[in-house]
Please model this.
Amino acid sequence: MVIGYLKEGSLKIAPIVPKNITKLRQFCDEVLIEKGIGEGAMFQDNEYDGASIDSRSEILSKADVIVQITPDITDAEYASTKEGAIFLCQYAPFTDDKIAEGLKSNGVNAFSLDMIPRTSLAQSMDVLSSMASIAGYQAVLVGLQHLPRYAPMMITAAGSIKPAKVLVIGAGVAGLQAIATARRNGAVVEAFDTRAAVKEEVQSLGAKFVEVEGATDDKDAGGYAVEQTEDYKRRQAELIHQRAIGSDIVITTAQLRGRPAPCLIHKKTVEGMRRGSVIVDLAASTGGNCELSENNKLVIHNDVSIVGDSYLYNRMPQDASTLYGNNIHNFLKHVINEGSIDLNSQDEILSKSLISSKKS
Model:
């Protein structure tokens, strides 16, 4: 079996790092990587010992399994691929139901890495969680960078400074990492989530859990928030408004899979916050949790800085690439059996992530 890795076009991170090569060769015959694949993450081609450096077109024509991070392969390129080739990528089919149809029309066998179930067995393959953890960490650093105040309590000869207050909305992977990072920096942290099940995790990290009673909680939502009733949304908006106007940094991470992110921080809340406060919106790419957020932009309203960035993990491309490469390796190790991948497998990880099969 030949596994080929393509260079990422829009992000700095790489789908493979040098240390993955030796382990990959344990269950495949050859590893092909596109020239310059690790440049954004500061890995040079000569570090990928044991892999063959090749062109994009050559990889597409030779590889049995083709790996990339975000999809950018054209119909013409799909037509040039090896018969029966299998693609691994983050296709995000939940954002557009026509993606799978397009792949099937091209006769493509494809696994979408963002559809890997969030189960204990699949944790080591979960690219979304790996990137979310980095994003949560970075969200705090970005917030502190814009904050004109200390994070920890400071006692000096000139007087005492109170610690910053951080509100984290959404206690999933990104939110929990944000809580831990803010606490390590000495801030007082509160966290809100509709899922009561995360209360103990929040408290174990030293944060106060704030909640609105009566939330709809779907255990089958894959770790994502679910749509709430209008009455709940009203009470939720009141609570978030009260907590946000008393916070120095608000970090929002709430997303609804396949739907626009819920608007949780309204304009009136921003205008009620202290001047110099910061909002870091990790849901900006799907509409944002803040009414004033703009994706990939810094918006300043009433001297409140609003950072809209859903790809904060791209600010740490080296470690992000290491985690991503490990996720891919673990997935391949799980699915490759005696030199092939069984597209008809009843394995939950394969069945849920397979979005297109030439046989279907």
The chain has two domains: 2-119+316-356, 133-314. The mean pLDDT is 93.
